[in-house]
Amino acid sequence: MNVPLNYILVGLLFVAWIGLFSVKDAARETNARAADLERTVSLEHGRIDDLMTEWAILNQPAYLQRLAQVNLGLNATDPRQIVTMSALPPVMLEAPTDTSSGTFFASVEGYLQMPQARERHDPYADMPRPMVRPQPQSGVGD
Predict the structure, then answer these.
(1) Are the C-beta atoms of 63 and 57 separated by less than 8 Å?
(2) b or e along 19-47 (b: 16 or more beta carbons within 10 Å of the residue's beta carbon)?
(3) What pLDDT digit, counting tens, does each position of 18-39 carry?
(4) Average of pLDDT values for 122-131?
(5) For a pLDDT cut of 90, what percent of the chain falls above it?
(6) DSSP result, 91-131
(7) 114-120, long-range: CB within 8 Å, 24+ apart, which pairs?
(8) Cβ–Cβ under 8 Å, residues 85 and 91
(9) What is the pLDDT of residue 115?
(10) Most CB atoms closer than 10 Å: which of 54, 85, 97, 129?
(11) pTM of the prediction?
(12) Helix (H, G, I), strand (E, B) or coil at 137
């Protein structure tokens, strides 16, 4: 009577041993994968640090100024180049009708009061107008 029970217990022990071995193997693979991912993350952090350092070097004002001067021919802004709007000359808005009178300057208000300017100034003149559809009347008040 103990013999069949011993066989059953040995069989259960064997199944438990196989299950434990498969769990141990899966845990080893998972640990190896986690170590590989940690190594990859560490390498990526190193690359990010390298790129941040390179970005800081390339964004230095002296470096950008030298690049602008060499490649674009740009120079630093002279303080005399900065003016207020009142210091600017008036804008020529319309060609003169009489060429002997010289250049015709006008204010924006005067320009907009001219009929041909008002017609050209409408930014929505070329856009199609929306159609208004009549709303159907409900039979509530009928």
Answers:
(1) yes
(2) eeeeeeeeeeeeeeeeeeeeeeeeeeeee
(3) 999 999 999 999 999 999 999 9
(4) 57
(5) 34
(6) PP-S--SSGGG------HHHHHHSHHHHHHH-TTTTSPPPP
(7) 117/93
(8) no
(9) 52
(10) 54
(11) 0.41
(12) coil
Q: How far apart are CA 28 and CA 94, in angstroms?
A: 84
Distances (CA, A) of 24 to 30, 32, 127: 10, 12, 74
Token code pair at residue 13: 């022990």
Amino acid, single-letter form, for residue 50: D
Query: Can you read off the two tokens belonging to residue 81?
Result: 């180049």
Encoded amino acid at 18, one letter: I
CA distances from 52 to 12, 34, 59, 67 (A): 59, 27, 10, 20
Alpha-carbon distance of 52 to 46, in angstroms, equals 10
**Centroid of chain to Cα 75:** 29
72-106 pLDDT, tens digit each: 888 778 888 788 877 777 776 555 454 454 444 44
Tokens linked to 35: 């170590």
Distance of CA 54 to the CA centre of its chain: 22
Among candidates 78, 81, 62, 59, which has minimal Cα distance to 70?
Answer: 62
